[in-house]
Design a protein that fits this description.
mainly alpha, about 75% helix
């Protein structure tokens, strides 16, 4: 921090730490017990976060049929959730810089768990829209607090692999949601099964108890809050930080806009365009999820091997190619199932680099605010993509609508990544 209290720009020539063991699991073998508790708490949090978000895309077909909701309006519920998450993520990031990472994480987990339960009791689409918006505030906040917590807990030489491996918890949560869908829609009528799906989304509340007793606040965060001036909420837009904030926000917009355009509507694409039943589509979604999980772990390893930027550049191009093939080629069902793995791999794996990259772009006193704003600004703008896909699909096929908006988003992701500096190996300081 400068003498006037303004944030100083990140040192792009910051020290890099030599990496002796380049294997994916090296970080875990070298962890202390507090680091391992933090790792598992955040991995579980991301998993439950992913489960809560993916419940709505999985029941969107049922809700549109039961309540006669047009596609554009149905997509609006996903959009509202993500828009609210943008506000919640920025607010939670700012709060994490003031009251601590762990305490903020507890609050956000309890918040989105409660409103997932509320979703199970709504009586019409308008009530669901409000409940999903309120859930989104906690959904966005959980990522902001958890990503900073992990980024500050893990040493520089392992940060990409550790934070990226935590990100793979999202695929596990997604898989849990798909499994719950297969079971519940097999034993219950659709008008009851979708409500139980949302009720299961209240389970993350149990995580807050674990966070309260087992996960310590990062030392660097404690020292910074004790010694540094409390940041203003607008400080990430001042001086040399402005360019970083703009580019990082565009990066997040591209990576999330593409992801949400695909995952929000893919279950519906399989049932409407490909003629599969809800239960019959489970195997196709499973291939996508397995690919996603492999992509997260591979991305975690690559972010420490080839750098964050190169990871983003390679995976954005791979995502464009696989989305185009999946939605535009006249594939048989067996080939469609096979292509689900690379689609999940490329459309998810780059997220493993996002947490460490945003952590390393900002000084400690602004890290929560900067990381929370940029990532969730991307969620907010990317939130428009599900609604736009839904509206465009009225006049065009759903497959074409998904492909168009995914290509636009991943193109933006590529350009923004190319414009930002590499941060691999950057050491964090109490500044």
């Amino acid at each position: 921090m400068t003498a006037t209290g303004a944030a100083k720009a990140p040192d792009h020539a910051a020290d890099a730490v030599a990496i002796d063991d380049t294997s994916l699991a090296a970080f875990y073998r070298d962890m202390t017990p507090p680091e391992r508790r933090t790792f598992w708490a955040c991995a579980l949090g991301w998993g439950l976060d992913g489960m809560d978000y993916m419940i709505y895309p999985l029941v969107i077909g049922t809700i549109t049929a039961l309540w006669h909701v047009p596609p554009g309006q149905a997509g609006l519920a996903a959009t509202v959730t993500l828009l609210a998450s943008a506000v919640g993520g920025w607010g939670a990031g700012f709060l994490a810089d003031r009251i601590g990472r762990v305490r903020t994480l507890q609050i956000t987990v309890l918040w989105f768990s409660f409103f997932s339960l509320v979703c199970a009791f709504v009586q019409n689409f308008e009530q669901l829209l409000v409940a999903r918006a309120l859930l989104g505030l906690g959904f966005g906040g959980e990522w902001a607090a958890g990503a900073v917590l992990m980024g500050e807990t893990i040493r520089a030489q392992y940060r990409g692999r550790a934070v990226g491996s935590v990100q793979s918890g999202w695929a596990v949560g997604w898989g849990a949601a798909v499994l719950a869908q297969a079971v519940l829609f097999s034993i219950l009528p659709p008008d009851q099964a979708w409500r139980w799906m949302f009720a299961i989304g209240a389970l993350p509340a149990l995580l807050a108890l674990y966070l309260r007793t087992a996960v310590p606040e990062p030392e660097i965060s404690v020292r910074t809050r004790e010694s540094a001036e409390r940041p203003a909420i607008w400080e990430i837009f001042s001086g040399p930080m402005l360019k970083t904030t703009i580019l990082a926000s565009l990066l997040s917009t591209g990576c999330q806009g593409g992801y949400y355009a695909i995952t929000t509507w893919l279950p519906k694409f399989l049932t409407s365009d490909k003629g599969l039943s809800i239960v019959g589509s489970t195997g196709y979604l499973a291939a996508l999820i397995v690919g996603s999980f492999a992509g997260y772990l591979t991305g975690a390893w690559l972010s420490d091997r080839i750098g964050r930027r190169n990871l983003f550049l390679v995976f954005s191009l791979g995502a464009i190619a696989t989305v185009a093939a999946y939605t535009q080629l006249p594939l048989s069902n067996s080939l469609l199932w096979f292509l689900g793995f690379p689609l999940g791999f490329f459309s998810s794996g780059y997220f493993s680099g996002m947490g460490p990259f945003l952590t390393e772009l900002y000084p400690t006193r602004l890290r929560g605010s900067g990381q929370g704003f940029c990532y969730n600004f991307g969620r907010g703008v990317g939130a428009l993509f599900p609604a736009l896909v839904g509206w465009l699909s009225v006049g065009a096929s759903l497959g074409n609508a998904i492909a168009i908006f995914a290509a636009v988003a991943y193109g933006l992701f590529f350009v923004a990544a190319f414009s930002l500096p590499e941060t691999k190996g950057r050491v964090l300081h109490a500044d």
